[in-house]
Every structure is written in C-alpha cells, then in structure tokens.
Amino acid sequence: MTALPTFTLAIVGAGPRGVGVLERLSANADGLLGDRRVEVHLVDPFPPGPGRVWRYEQSPLLRMNSMPEDVTVFTDDTVRIDGPVRPGPSLIEWVRKVRAGTLEYPVPDDVRAEFETLASTDFPTRRLQSRYLEWFYRKVVAELPHGITVVEHLATAESIDDDETVRLSDGTTVSADAVVLTVGHLDAVPDSRERELEAFAEQHELSYYPAGYTADVDYSAVPAGEPVLVRGFGLAFVDLMLLLTEGRGGRFEELPCGGLRYRPSGAEPVLHVGSRRGVPYHAKTGYPLRGKPLQLPRFFDQRAIDRLTGPLDFRADVWPLIAKELAWAYYTELFTGHPDRVRMDFAVFADKFADLPWGTSEMDALITAAVPALEDRLDLERLDRPFAGRRYDSGEEFGKAVRKYIESDLARRADAHHSADLGAFMALLSVIGQLPTLLATGRLTAASQVSDMDGWFHGFFSYYASGPPPRRLEELLALEDAGVVSFLGADISIAADETAGTFVASSASHPDTVAARTLIEARLPEASVPRVSDPLLRSLRDAGALAEETVPDVDGATLPSGRIATTLSDFRLLTVDGSPHPRRFAVGPHTSVRSAGAFTRPRTNAISFRQNDALAREILRLANP
To answer: Where would I find the FAD-dependent urate hydroxylase HpyO/Asp monooxygenase CreE-like FAD/NAD(P)-binding domain in this sequence (predicted)?
Structure first.
C-alpha cells in the first residue's frame, strides 16, 4: 500500500496554549493517527513554551499572581476528555524535583536563588514560570511518538494563502494542510476615544499611552517627579507600578513592626490611579480551606442550566444562580470550618438554603438568623462596588478610606479566620467551568452575553479571584505613604482640557481634580477583530477569511462581540459568510469558544485542557480520515 504523504500542521502561537495543543496531539496519536505522519510547524517570534507573555526576557520584578502549587500544564484524572490523561508535576512539584536532583534541568544562575527557596505558597517570578514552560515544551517534544515531528520558526506569521501556505516575516513559507491559531490576547489599534486622546496629546506635546500589555510598552519617557494619570487598577497597573518605582531604582524596606517603607530614587513619577471601582483587585488568599470539602457545582450545574428557559438576561436570570453557588461555598466553609461563629446546625441551614432563591427576603432572614456577625455575611454587591454611592469631601479623605480598605483586605486575605472567602473563590472557578454549558444553550440575549457575561461578570471574576500577591498591595500602601501613588476615585473620568492643554481626571468619589501631561491606560485592549493589529489576523480579516463573532439574539438580530468567530463544536474559523473553514482553526480566550488561561490549577477539570484535547483529536481525524 502506498504511504500517505506527510500531513503538515502549522500552529501559529507557540506559547502555553500552542504547546498544550501539541501535547494533546502527542497523547492522542496512538489511537487516531494510524500510519500517517504529521509535521508540526510552530510559528512564534518568541521562544516555544513560554511564548510572548511568559518569555524569560522580561523584568525580574514581574511575578505571577498564582502560587506554584496552583499552576500546572498537565492533565489529571479530574479532566473529562476523550484522550488519554498524561499527568505531570505542578510548578512547585517540578521545582522540588529539580532541587532534589530527581529531575535534571540546568537552572540559570539568575533564578537559582529562587529555585532554592521557593515554597508552595510563594508567588514566583514570571522568569521562573518561563523555565517551567520551556521544560514542558522540551519534554513534549522529547516524548513525541514516531509519527510526529516538530519544526520551530522564530518568526511572525503574516498571511495565509488560499492553499494554506503560511508566509512568515523572515521570508520563508510553510505549506500547510491545516493551520491552528492559538492567538492569546488580541492586540488592537486605538479605538475612537483613544485616537482623540492621542491627537490631543500630539497637539499639546503631551504623552498618551493607550491600552497594551504592560511588559511590552516602553515607559522610559514617563517623566520623573511629574504627575501621571493612570486609568485602570488591575494587574496591568500592578506591573506598571513596579516598573516605574522599584524598576527605576527605588527600594522597599521591611519595617520592624510589619509592613513596608519605600525609599524613592528620585526617578519616579507621581502616579494618580483610578478606575470604575476605585480600588485594586483583591489580594490572593494565603490559607487553605478548613472545613469539609466543597461539593461544586451545586446550584449552577448542568441541571440548573437546562432548567433555564430563554430568552435569558444574565443579571436577572443567571446571576442569582451564580450568586447562590458562591454563597453556598462561602457558607459551607464558614459553617464547617468556623462552627463557633454560626447559630445553626449546618445540615439544617443547608436544607433551608437549598430551597430558597438567592436575593429574597427569606434567604436574607435565614442568613441573618444563622450568621450573627455582619462581617461574616457575604455581601456580593458591596464586594463588587465597595465605594458605590459614597462621596468624600476631598481626595485626601477618599485616599484615607481606600488605604483602610486595602489594609482590611490584606488582613482578611492573610487570616484563616476568613477562609470562607476562599470558599467563594473556589465557587467562582467552578462557575467559569460551567459557562460554556450556558453558552451552548443559545438562550442568553446577545446584549446580556456581550455586556453582562463577557463584560461585567468576567471583570468581577478577575477583581475577586485573579488579583495580585498580597506583597503587591503592601507595596502599594508603601508607595502611597511615600507620596508616589495617590488614589483618584471610583468611576474615573478623563477630560482633555483645551484651555490648559492638559489631561484632567475627576471621579465620583470626591470633588477634587488632578491635571497631568501624561495619561496611561493600564489595561489590556478589549478584544476587537475590527481593530486587531496582528498582521496575520488583519490580513485574514481583510480577505474575508476571518470574521468577528456576532452573537445571535432571540429575535433574530445579532450583536458583534469583538471576538474571532469560530464554530463552538470543533474550533473552525468562520469566514465572513458564516462558513466554517475546513482546515483552519482558532482557540483561545478571544474566540467564540471562550476559555481562561492555558495553564490552570491542578485537579479542576480545566476548560483549556478539554478544549486542547478536543481540538487535537479533530486535527488527527483530519490528518487520518
């Protein structure tokens, strides 16, 4: 029998997601590839494994916001996939094996000290994570079955011809039979409002930095000693804060009584930061659960989703189920981990809780009767908008309130007395895993899906569950105490003052304003196919070979989401006429098949692993029909 020609697959994007797909191709090959050979071309200007975001060549000041015990790139027996599970070490397990000499890895000198001292509850540098991802990639390649080979291209993919020829920035081409785009976050050109601010800055010789990935932006021109307006108080701000302070020669000192003092170098600007909430993301918790194991999902599971009848409004119809799920996990931990702080047997509370809808007076009465201390009750509205409706006489008074808020958050996240917060965190992770099931029903209204689920809810998730290490908020307080950072307020507004020729910031929290000649958008760009800046995605879009997702509404209308349009079942790219491309695929957080990060907490049945496995199996079936 004549041997089939080699099947050539181009994976554009060789970070954790691209390598995760490669690992699943390897794992599934025995059952699906047969005698067909596959040559995988990994295309990325950054090193395979870490890719762009986790590349080794970035500031050593930048850290992960996850503990090494909560990071893995390996499937385990909780992951519900059709392919074989191939377990492996989490980040901390890998470090321990390297330390013990049971796993050979050449540790670079500039992370050796971190390797030697890293504990399971530390927050590693991104450089250390980069080494873990590099090792994972090398392990995957070393263990590829006989029928799969890999070719690396340290270049940018710029276009794909109709015959699947991928043209690269170094002048070479890859003649592919299929292409997978593992695109990650979508870089974007400025939107209309940002262009207005850019034009104003150019007219008045100001500095404006539109939304972008902080580690990729050159902030060297930000002037020392001058006020700088910063819009955004999430992880992008935390990175910016470090780069413009400690990264410019300042240093943090431990105080004998606890806390930090910042010693300025004199090269720092003065950062005035504000956002919609006016506060930073919550710090990560520093303790384990103390009560009985959580049974999740409980109230936001397949059955509950199936019972929902459309059209659905996310806030009115879905959020009460999610809120009840968060509260269930929160109160399970409170009752079973801290029984001295409740007035009711947990079994009795659980039965009554299960029968009551969230947000009703009966549910409120049950919680009030069972949980005497106000601080022990879960208030999701206050969590979401802690300063909503509160106005202070001055920016100074607001700053004092924010400082107290951050100090309280740090104390709460460091004290196992409040481990119920971790229960709610675990429930949020469970909810994220159930959202694809909700989307598959097609019952959400388009506006609610785009604005409420993709917008508000995912923002709330990041704010509550994906915040910085506690040390970063301690550093924020030290910088505020040193006069290097001040807090602008909630619902921040930026105006272009033509008369003064400056940017002016105001907020809903107090009447004071701040003027500055520099404005920084401390956030990632929103997903936007119309504004995408990547040359490959732009060329595919302009050719009609890649489309923006349009979310169908119940009345037949559609609403654009900004995401790359793909099929939900097999990740195929959709063209502008709605047709799935037979040989082009895309996977990642900003496609129709939404997902979280490419690596995840162990033993959580992560969506990304399930997606990688399903995509790999589809490709192998294409290679060996």
So the answer is: 10-185
Q: Rounded to whole angstroms, how far apart are CA atoms 459 and 448?
A: 14
Closest by CA to 574, choosing from 556, 591, 555, is: 591
Residues 207 and 337 in one domain: no
Tell me the C-alpha distance between 122 and 126, whole Å: 12
Position 293 in a domain? no
Tokens 């049971």 locate to 102
Region of 258 on the Ramachandran plot (φ > 0 left; ψ -120 to 50 alpha; else beta): left
Residue 599 confidence (pLDDT):
74
Cα–Cα distance between 383 and 401 in angstroms, integer? 15
Residue 599 CA, chain-centre distance (Å), reads 11
Q: Do 419 and 454 fall into the same domain? A: yes
The region of weakest confidence among 113-127, 182-196, 611-625 is 182-196
**pLDDT tens by residue, 3-12:** 679 999 999 9
Kindly give the residue spans of alpha helices, DSSP state H, lying in 162-318. Answer: 192-203, 235-243, 302-307
Mark whether 149 and 241 lie in a shared domain.
no
To the question of pTM greater than 0.70 for the whole model, the response is: yes
In a domain, 146, yes or no: yes
Same domain, 460 and 472: no
Q: Tell me, what DSSP letter sits at residue 70? A: G
Interval 543-563: pLDDT, tens? 999 999 998 887 777 899 999
Q: Is the pLDDT of residue 1 over 50?
A: no
DSSP count for the chain of H helices, then E strands: 18, 21
**Angle 229-232-237 (CA atoms, 0-180°, nearest 5)?**
90
597 and 539 in a common domain:
yes
Domain shared by 167 and 202, yes or no? no
The owner of tokens 């307006």 is 229
Instruction: Tell me the three-class secondary structure of 449-488, residue by residue.
Output: HHHHHHHHHHHHHHHHHCCCCHHHHHHHHHHHHCCCEEEE
Paired tokens of 512: 């004071």
Residue with the two structure tokens 């080494």: 131
Q: State how far the Cα of 565 lies from the Cα of 558, in Å rounded to an integer.
A: 13
Return the pLDDT at 196. 97
Asked whether residue 261 falls in the same domain as residue 308, the answer is: no
User: How many domains would you assign to the chain?
Assistant: 3
**Residue-number span of the structural domain to which 99 is assigned:** 7-187+528-623
Q: What are phi and psi of 206, to 5 degrees?
A: -105, 180
Q: Is residue 247 part of a domain?
A: yes
Average pLDDT over the chain, rounded to whole?
95
pLDDT per residue as tens digits for the range 192-205? 999 999 999 999 99
pLDDT tens column, 282-311: 999 989 999 999 999 999 999 999 999 879
